[in-house]
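Action item from last meeting closed. Structure (521 res):
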């Protein structure tokens, strides 16, 4: 039997008492490790984290905690080779795709370590300036942000076991809030290894970082009013979390990152030249990186009706060069989906789209490299329409996230129709827009903003330096309205708000000033 990963709760390594769920290599089908959380005393685990971890973290200032993040980063950097190895085995990804997860995690951690150094080494944060409440300026209102005295329960999706951990844990720990991480079972190994390395390096106070691998049973029942939940995953699970009594009756704060049918928009008159090339390159990259298993991946490709054929030809030419198969073979550019279940879900999505759109490109006619049909490899598949009037009616395409290397070309007759169709996604994480008219780009950005958490605007002046449609940079917020879950993470210091409580202090100017005079440095 494969190794059973050990949970770390209440400051102790604790095995689950069941036989556990097995994690597999999605290319070779080999059993890798098992996870199990049966029989853990979750009440004690949350209490320990809340009391010991929370108290110890809050006794430090922001700069002190930034130092902890820096030390964590150093430990993880030294173990990178192991993380790439686990990622290849458990996620079935080629090196470049593993890097999106692993290097993305380290970059985000480093970013928050640095950002924390810019804060006062105080116990709480100042929020805005004092506002006079009476005629006499002596009586004022000053808002402050204090770390919430609870646990941050972080529940993650399978597609980012490294980045998903640290993009949530770094802002939480910097805020002074202990973390209880529950990774998605299918890829829990990498998250577990990173947590293990950090715990063994003895950087954090006891209770500051805990990990539960396996079933989520009973986790939400432990939540108390000052705890917070940050969830990334499907809309169905999000619904369960939102309706849990801890949330509905005790106001436990929840952040949801869910499905998203993201868009790329090619503006008119761009059919040749650098903008067109940037657009094609980005669409292909987004369809194939991590086999399209990115919440930010481009799913809907909007192009002027007159340009459909040119776009189709360029995309097909590029997609047909994508080699798919075993990531251990150096000629492979795209590895596998994460599991048989995900493969089936994606194949079902492809069948569904075949019923409502034309098949522009079917990569499955090409042979897999060093892999067979038993593997979880699925080749890129491009759908499309010739006419804008058909694209307008394709509700399934606008509202279904097929979580794999699948996207659809949607023609538009005029810009307002394109914007209308983009909005039919009912709220997305990100849209990218490609054009060269500054005023037009600015107007489109303003028109699309309310429907998105992030807009990636590409003109030729930024073509060589842009960070990518799907790359989540910690400087910018990540999250989106509506279908995307309504959440908000990262965005520099904004990412700390979720882990703090905002309070208005009404009092004498002298009292308010005294609150900020102490520092624990
Ligand atoms: P999922 O099935 O909803 O699982 C997400 C997490 O929730 C896993 O850790 C899962 O644990 C846990 N979970 C399942 N049932 C639960 C319950 N009743 N209570 C508490 N936790 C529960 O999603 P997934 O298949 O891992 O991820 C794919 C989805 O995530 C896609 O739809 C994608 O769009 C979305 N996603 C969004 C973002 C974003 O930032 N917006 C990023 C990445 C992915 P188990 O694994 O043990 O079941």
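Sequence:
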């Amino acid at each position: 039997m494969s190794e059973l990963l050990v949970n770390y709760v209440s400051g102790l390594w604790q095995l689950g008492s069941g036989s556990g769920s097995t994690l597999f290599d999605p290319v070779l089908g080999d059993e890798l490790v098992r996870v199990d959380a049966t029989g853990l005393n979750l009440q004690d685990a949350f209490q320990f984290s809340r009391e010991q971890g929370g108290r110890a973290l809050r006794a430090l200032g922001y700069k002190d905690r930034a130092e902890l993040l820096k030390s964590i980063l150093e430990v993880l950097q030294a173990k990178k080779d192991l993380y790439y190895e686990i990622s290849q085995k458990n996620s079935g990804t080629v090196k470049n795709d593993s890097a999106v997860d692993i290097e993305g995690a380290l970059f985000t951690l480093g970013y928050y370590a640095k950002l924390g150094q810019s804060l006062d080494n105080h116990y709480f944060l100042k929020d805005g300036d004092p506002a006079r409440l009476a005629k006499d300026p002596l009586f004022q209102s000053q808002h402050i942000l204090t770390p919430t005295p609870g646990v941050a329960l972080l529940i993650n999706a399978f597609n980012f076991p490294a980045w998903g951990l640290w993009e949530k844990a770094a802002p939480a720990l910097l805020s002074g809030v202990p973390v209880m991480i529950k990774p998605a079972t299918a890829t829990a190994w990498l998250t577990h290894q990173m947590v293990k390395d950090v715990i063994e390096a003895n950087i954090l106070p006891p209770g500051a970082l805990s990990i539960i691998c396996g079933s989520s049973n009973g986790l939400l029942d432990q939540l108390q009013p000052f705890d917070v939940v940050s969830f990334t995953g499907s809309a169905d699970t999000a619904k369960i979390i939102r309706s849990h009594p801890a949330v509905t009756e005790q106001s436990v704060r929840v952040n949801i990152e869910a499905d998203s049918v993201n868009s790329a928009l090619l503006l008119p008159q761009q059919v040749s030249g650098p903008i067109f090339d940037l657009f094609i390159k980005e669409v292909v990259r987004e369809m194939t990186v991590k086999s399209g298993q990115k919440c930010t991946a481009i799913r809907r490709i909007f192009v002027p009706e007159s340009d459909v054929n040119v776009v189709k030809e360029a995309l097909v030419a590029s997609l047909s060069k994508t080699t798919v198969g075993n990531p251990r073979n150096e000629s492979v550019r795209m590895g596998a989906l994460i599991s048989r279940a995900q493969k089936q879900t994606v194949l079902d999505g492809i069948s569904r789209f075949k019923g409502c759109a034309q098949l522009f490109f079917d990569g499955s006619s090409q042979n897999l490299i060093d892999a067979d049909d038993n593997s979880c490899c699925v080749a890129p598949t491009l759908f499309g329409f010739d006419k804008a009037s058909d694209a307008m009616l394709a509700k399934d395409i606008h509202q279904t996230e097929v979580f794999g290397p699948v996207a659809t070309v949607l023609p538009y007759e005029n810009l307002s129709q394109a914007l209308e169709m983009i909005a039919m996604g009912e709220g997305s994480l990100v849209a990218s827009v490609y054009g060269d008219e500054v005023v037009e780009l600015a107007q489109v950005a303003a028109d699309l903003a309310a429907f998105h958490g992030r807009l990636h605007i590409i003109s030729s002046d930024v073509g060589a330096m842009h960070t990518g449609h799907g790359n989540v940079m910690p400087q910018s917020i990540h999250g989106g309205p509506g279908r995307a879950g309504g959440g908000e993470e990262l965005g520099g210091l904004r990412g700390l708000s979720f882990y703090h409580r905002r309070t208005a202090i009404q009092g004498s100017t002298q009292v308010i000033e005294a609150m900020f005079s102490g520092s624990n440095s």
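Note appended to the action item: The first strand starts at residue 3 and ends at 4.
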